[in-house]
Amino acid sequence: MPKKRLSPEAFLKLAQEEESHQLHGKLKIYLGAAPGVGKTYAMVEAARTKHTQGVDVVIGIIESHGRHELELLLHDLEIIPRQTIEYRGQHLTEFDLDATLARNPSIVLIDEMAHTNAPGLRHAKRWQDIKELLDRGINVYTTLNVQHIESLNDAVSQILHTHVQETVPDSMLELADTIELIDLPPEDLLKRLQEGKVYIPEQASLAVEHFFRKGNLSALRELALRITAERVEAQVLSYRQDLGIKHVWPTKVKLLVCVSARYQSTKLIRATRRMATRLKAEWHAVYVDTPEIRISEEKRNSAIQNLHLAERLGAATAVLTGLNVSKEIMDYAREHNITNIVLGKQIQPFWKNLFFGGLANKIIRQSGEIDVYLITGEFDDTAEKPISQDGRIPWLAYGIAVATVGIITFINYLFRDYLQNGSVAMLYLIGVAIVASFGEFSAAFLASILSVATFLFCFVPPYFTFVFSDMSSNLNLALLFLLTQIITYLAVISRRQTQAIHLAERHTTALYKLSRQLASTRGVDNLLAAAIRYLAELFDSNIIALLSENKTLVVHAKSDPMMNLNEKEKSIARWVCDLNQSAGLGTDTLPLSEATYVPLFTSQKPLGVLRISPNHPERLFTPEQMLLLESCASQIALAIEVDRSHGA
User: Fold this and answer.
1) pLDDT tens by residue, 128-137
2) Residue 383 has what pLDDT?
3) How much of the chain exceeds pLDDT 70, in percent?
């Protein structure tokens, strides 16, 4: 399949990334499962190769730990002298950041990225020194052990039965242009340790007792391999998106399940979860919210709840918006390199399959290199019928259709002596367009049928009969019917697309205004006060913000000073904070509560909870409002985390 032509936005993104690479230095990380696998040696060897090619390479800091073969590699490379820091009567030697910036090399080698600097230096951590070098346009080679990655801290603690104090944020790995895995089997590493090539003998015997056990090393090796594979996968996905490549590269099994409002969706979700577990595969769940078919709010909420079920079971979820369900699903699948799609096989009457087909058939025809799994459901004759958004039959729209056709017929009949048939037909077309502008397909279709019928009955001779006098009249009626259908389709789709665009625009504007307010505010309490003022107005609600302090939730801001929490509400908030899951009004958990509780959670830890008590719950707990609320909570949590890190 040929590559898709890049959009202007994709070209702009590529240009911005290229400019960013030119302004910032490049980071190369030599990642290993444990000390002694050869990270520093590999880094220095790579630097020596660059040096022989004429590249300006310097040694910022290398920890040789007395290894003679490593020290021999350094003898003809320029070394930045270390700076000496006096701390509590001791003289500590550290990497000299300012001397390196003044030297301004092309590449600088900095060992042990997770190292904690001596007190008194500009940065508390060595990775912060590296970040500044990159911001100044200097390329950096560095080393890192997998146990020092922040997001793996809890997993490493369970493996090693000890807490690793020195960590590097995952953002530094995302910043890296290259991550090179330096791998060594546990048996070979233990042999190197016994030969004294990792630590001196006294340290080696202690390390074997606590850290260098074969089981520990195997588990850490698996983590290192997995981190590297995930990084490579992210680079492949980014490359495909940047170049607009749409055909799937089956480098890894990925499953996609399509969710709807029907109860069979839960069966599909659980079946896909079992398949993903069996295949050890990543899986996604999507719901296509198309304005072409307006379903009731109850069914729409049911679809979103099914999506939440998939999310709780570990899926990456998304709500897609578009006119063509199968196209939106296939675009998502190819964009995310999905290899397998799971669908429900809807058993329906033969005539429906013949004339209307089905989603499964459309997906299969468009799937190409993607495998499609069909899971049989029960007979389902609950296809969406022409109803209004609140679930009722749109009698008002039908009435408007009949009235509009009647008024136009009266006008045409009143001026029949002055109008030709072409003008009469044009007035009927205008009437159909007016009815279609209300956004109801069924009402517009009714107006179309009535227009053609009244035109034939009243204005085509012989009058007041449904008999054609000649073939030209037959053709005119056919053209009139075709034009009314085209006008109906385009007008309704245009209106509903506009509604979808306005909804997305409102959400984007709301998040933009919130982010601007948070960006211009300093201090956690001030951030929360500004945020809840904005959210209280946006959602027409009373809001309380609670933050976790010493395993206790403390109220930090309230939109209404008179509001207080009882013990039951505090226990709900504690549960939400601990499990990072929304609860309360409008959710599956404690739905009879008077308020909704949304967690303030970052990638590292829970921060607190927002309690939202709406004045009009029916206006808040639509799926779009809930998604917007959760997005706002994520923005607030991120702003708090950034403010605290700057304060530290």
Assistant:
1) 999 999 988 9
2) 41
3) 76
For residue 600, give the CATH number of its domain.
3.30.450.40
**How many Cβ atoms from other residues are within 10 Å of residue 137's Cβ?**
13
Same domain, 259 and 238: no
Q: Distance of CA 526 to CAs 456, 519, 547, Å?
A: 71, 11, 13
Model pLDDT for residues 540-549, shown as the tens digit of each residue: 889 999 998 8
* Domain extent for 132: 8-242
Note whether 218 and 277 are same-domain residues. Answer: no
* Residue found under tokens 């100044």: 136
Do 188 and 63 share a structural domain? Answer: yes
Cβ atoms 186, 225 nearer than 8 A: no
To the question of pTM greater than 0.70 for the whole model, the response is: no
Q: Give strand pairing partners of 543.
A: 612
**Does one domain contain both 212 and 260?**
no
Residue 550 domain-assigned? Answer: yes
In terms of average pLDDT, the best of 120-129, 478-487, 509-518 is: 120-129
Which candidate, 101, 107, 118, places its Cα nearest to that of 28? 107
* Tokens, residue 611: 């309690």
Copy the structure tokens of residue 576: 């939400």
Are both 36 and 117 inside the same structural domain? yes
Question: In terms of DSSP H, where are the helices of 460-523?
Answer: 471-519
Q: What is the rounded average pLDDT of the residues 148-159?
A: 82
Write the single-letter amino acid at 345.
K
Q: Are residues 333 and 431 in the same domain?
A: no
Split at pLDDT 50, 70, 90, the class of 353 is low
Q: Is residue 401 part of a domain?
A: yes
Q: List the beta bridge partners of residue 424.
A: none
Q: Are residues 25 and 106 in the same domain?
A: yes
Dump pLDDT digits (tens) for 223-264.
888 888 777 777 676 666 666 666 666 667 899 998 887 767
> CB 423: neighbour CB atoms within 10 A?
11
Residue 497 in domain? no
Q: Provide long-range contacts, Cβ within 8 A and 24+ apart, for 626-630.
A: 626/304, 626/582, 626/586, 627/319, 627/507, 628/507, 628/510, 628/511, 629/535, 629/539, 629/596, 629/598, 630/582, 630/598
Query: How many domains would you assign to the chain?
Result: 4
C-alpha closest to that of 627 among 515, 499, 544, 506: 506
For residues 582-589, give the mean pLDDT. 76
**Are 192 and 92 in the same domain?**
yes
Category of 164 on φ-ψ map: left (φ > 0), alpha (ψ -120 to 50) or beta: beta
Is residue 62 assigned to a domain? Answer: yes
